[in-house]
């Protein structure tokens, strides 16, 4: 979750991470950028491909950046997810990646979990989730905002 990929600090951080780890694929949530702005960042970071879900004004926004080493097929997307199947070129087997940006409003958070249950019915490949579920595991993780019930 980059809280606005267009700011210089976020772009510099993304460049440093991609140089250090050389990933074949990166999922970004809450980019707050248009398709054109995200494509410029794709080029800056050296990725060959970019798929974006436009931000709503300066809210939300998703992006998937990847290199030619991946045979990637996007299965579905929304303002909350990008779901894809990946095959590493020259290797056997497929796996699935779903990038998630969960609903931040507590009263509609169940929609994120319903989406995942719906997606689970479609494929039988190994499955990896990445992103921001907008959920905390334990209350001590929470900083700021209204108090949450202890779970």
Q: What does it look like?
A:
By secondary structure, the protein is an alpha+beta fold. The chain has a single domain (8-132), classed as Endonuclease/exonuclease/phosphatase (Deoxyribonuclease I, Chain A), CATH 3.60.10. Helix content is 24%, strand content 30%. The protein contains three helices and seven strands; from the N terminus they run αβαβββββαβ. The strands form two sheets. It has a four-stranded mixed sheet, with no helix packed on it. The longest helix has 14 residues, at 8-21. The mean pLDDT is 86.
Could you name the CATH homologous superfamily?
Answer: Endonuclease/exonuclease/phosphatase
The number of helical segments is: 3
Describe the main β-sheet briefly: 4 strands, mixed
Beta fraction: 25-35%
Cα Rg: 16 Å
CATH class: Alpha Beta
Number of domains: 1
**End-to-end Cα distance:** 24 Å
CATH topology-level fold name: Deoxyribonuclease I, Chain A
User: Level of helix content?
Assistant: 10-25%
The CATH architecture designation is 4-Layer Sandwich
**Element string (H = helix, E = strand):** HEHEEEEEHE
Shape: globular
